[in-house]
Recover the amino acids of this structure.
């Protein structure tokens, strides 16, 4: 008997028929003799609707309003967990719906994007020990008696954290595609499903925009060695046959490609300051206040003029933060002199990722040449050991992804008719 955590995302529980199909997956695991905890998302579109309601009534600037926001947006998951538990019960399977606070999912106090601090699983373990399927509302936890949420896509993190706490044999993340692909299959039709991907690569892919897993869930899986499988809820193949993509340690991947996957993010905005006074402390003076205001600065490039007296500074922040960042800079009287400030939210970041980059040179040059051939201008570049990212005009996203996908030999081989 294995302990399995199953997570079902929004499209997988979109309506009552989909919830019945999810109950089939749960039932199969129960019949196979597994002890099962299920983590569910809100029905597709529900969280967006709840967020819209909140934003229409309140700009959500204070931490108290963000706590009330969490109280609202967490409710979508509670509905799904109750409905699935009812559906299982009707089939004669013992099941109970659980809210985050009831399984002791404690978080820090950053409402809207809280981090899990610990999970007290005693009650959950006892119920599962009685043969009851636990149907848990994902995305939500509790802090100081108030409901908190884990940020968009947070049910993935709930599932992996619960799998770690239960020392589960596997955490199956059911979604609306067959697994993790070389690139978003909705944009690059020739994307290939990966049978395995290393935790490190998945972490880069997720943090560079591949929303198939929330970044924090991959971090937790890597740190706690949770065996995670990403698979489709639209298939009826047993998850024990491992039809999806497995997250594994790097050493378990025998043939390392130069590039394993390509990610993109539309959530970038560029800000440029021209002719900034060039002296020690300028960057600290700019990026310090942005960090204090909770804004994530991603890519940064600085060009010093020939005489060394001034510099142009370009950096990116999340699209939602752009106006606030500009307000903060223009309103900051202590900031060094600069000539002008420009911004552009019509940009996107494309990243090629692969552990093979550690041992293969020339990936960056090949990436830049491929983009140049397509006449795509690169605005900013940033790199890490296993990743190269470029900022480009957002109208070229699809062209860039497809060209790079082909260039790095990732295209699926088309099956030819005999
Ligand atoms: P869920 O509601 O199940 O959590 P998400 O919408 O959060 O599902 O994540 C699944 C989506 O992630 C897919 O529909 C796909 O468009 C997108 N995606 C982006 N990059 C990838 C990738 N590399 N592999 C698979 N899916 C990806
Ligand atoms: N319902 C939440 C969201 O839409 C959490 C999740 O689906 O993972 O972001
Ligand atoms: Mg998701």
């Amino acid at each position: 008997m294995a302990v399995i955590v199953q997570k079902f995302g929004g499209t997988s529980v979109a309506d009552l028929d989909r919830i019945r199909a999810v109950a089939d997956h749960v039932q199969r695991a129960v019949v196979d003799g597994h002890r099962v905890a299920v983590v569910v998302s809100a029905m597709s579109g529900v969280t967006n609707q709840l967020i819209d309601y909140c934003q229409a009534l309140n700009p959500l600037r204070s931490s108290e309003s963000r706590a009330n926001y969490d109280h609202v947006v967490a409710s979508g998951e509670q509905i799904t967990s109750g409905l699935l538990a009812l559906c299982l019960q009707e089939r004669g399977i013992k099941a109970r719906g659980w809210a985050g606070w009831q399984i002791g999912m404690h978080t820090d106090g950053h409402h809207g994007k809280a981090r899990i601090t610990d999970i007290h699983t005693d009650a959950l373990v006892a119920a599962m020990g009685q043969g009851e399927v636990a149907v848990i509302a994902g995305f939500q936890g509790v802090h100081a008696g108030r409901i908190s949420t884990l940020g968009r896509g947070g049910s993935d993190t709930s599932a992996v954290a619960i799998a770690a706490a239960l020392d589960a044999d596997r955490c199956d993340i059911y979604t609306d595609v067959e697994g993790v692909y070389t690139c978003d299959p909705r944009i690059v039709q020739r994307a290939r499903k990966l049978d395995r991907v290393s935790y490190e690569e998945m972490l880069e892919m997720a943090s560079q925009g591949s929303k198939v897993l929330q970044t924090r869930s991959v971090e937790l899986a890597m740190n706690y060695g949770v065996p995670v499988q990403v698979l489709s809820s639209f298939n009826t193949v047993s998850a024990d046959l491992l039809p999806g993509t497995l997250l594994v340690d790097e050493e378990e991947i025998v043939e390392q490609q130069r590039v394993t996957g390509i990610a993109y993010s539309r959530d970038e905005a560029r800000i440029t300051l021209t002719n900034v006074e060039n002296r020690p402390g300028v960057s600290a003076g700019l990026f310090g206040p942005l960090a204090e205001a909770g804004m994530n600065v991603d890519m940064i490039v600085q060009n010093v003029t020939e005489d060394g007296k001034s510099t142009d500074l370009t950096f990116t922040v999340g699209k939602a933060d752009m106006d606030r960042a500009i307000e903060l800079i223009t309103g900051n009287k202590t900031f060094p002199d600069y000539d002008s400030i420009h911004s552009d939210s019509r940009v996107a970041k494309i990243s090629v990722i692969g552990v093979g980059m550690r041992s293969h040179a020339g990936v960056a040059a090949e990436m830049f040449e491929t983009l140049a051939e397509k006449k795509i201008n690169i605005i900013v570049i940033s790199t890490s050991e296993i990743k190269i990212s470029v900022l480009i005009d957002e109208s070229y996203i699809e062209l860039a992804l497809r060209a790079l996908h082909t260039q790095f030999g990732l295209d699926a081989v088309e099956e030819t008719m005999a």
